Amino acid sequence: MVRGMKLTGALCAAAMLVLGGAGSASAEKMKDGHPDLSGFWGVKFERKPTGQALIDELPKGTVMIKDTGPGELKEGDFGGLTLTPRALEQVKKYSYANDTSVANNCKSPTMAFLMQAPFPMEIHQGKDMIILKMEYFDMVRIVDMDRSKHTPPDAPHSKSGDSIGHWEGDTLVVDTDHLESGTMMNNGFDHTENMHVIEKFRLSPDGKTLWATQLYEDPDTFEGKAARYLSWTRKPGEYVYPYDCDPNYLKE
Amino acid sequence: MRKFCGALLFCFVFGMAAPAGAHHSFVVTYLPDKLISVTGVVSEFRFSNPHGIVRFTVKTPEGLEAEWRAETNSPNVLRRRGWKPDSIKIGDLITVTGWPARDGSNLIRVNKITLPSGKELVGQAPAPVSKSGEAQ
Description:
By secondary structure, chain A is α+β, with helices and mostly antiparallel strands. Chain A has five helices and twelve strands.
């Protein structure tokens, strides 16, 4: 596993050299004419979404999960989702006492929950590939811009999944599947391996804020569609820190 | 927990809500609407993710010693707020202000820590608890 992590790190380092560093200038457009999302992005704590336009584009009836950034749902509050019997059964069996167990402390969520955490990210943008280097649990997301189909159904599932992207005007649209099962909101149930996520990323007109929505579909976990709204502030010259996780941190 | 309130410099209640979310559920472990302060001598400071831990010894009014643990926000977040791995030293007399554990154990989630010099290290500020999502 360590060898795998080193290989991933080496690949990412090589890709970042090709794509350019996180501290690159925040020009409004790339050479290919698309918005320049590259750089360091810190979570923006908004009382009221400044990227309401993205929220308005979500399908009608979408349930907005409001636990992003500093927010957190209380036990038994599923953010307005109607859970399936499978998910409810999982909640019933879940032990909150084990929430901070050694086995659980350093268990990374999938990108379906990880993106909402109050940690920054770096974006390294190229024409054929965009990398989202997340600080939280050191996740590195690779968005393949040069592919229109996901990997075959029997390809491995992972925390970051298989992400393919395209531009719709000035909006980056990222379609992700092949996710492992993982927590949906730290409230006792997991999404399944069939989770499908569509993200939209868009810069504010001044280029200083990055807005995003994550639209989720997982019929084995909840009814209909659900979404989170996310926003970040561009902070030139900063970098993500490594996330060294100590599972024994709460051990007596 | 309640029996130790007498040992605290002050133990007070605010109409405050939960702080930033973490990898595990804050509100399941801590009381989000209550802030207390506990003073003691540091015996250990672990500055590692997912959360840091400060262990400290509190003297009770009866003259006994009680071991407490203070859980901080992620060190990555704290570094950006001015914390360092050596910000808190063994032997320091500190006052930890934060949210007490639901189970009444000697565990507190750090809002801020006051050092012997009077300097305050802010861990995390209170923030609104989210409510159920609303269908659009």
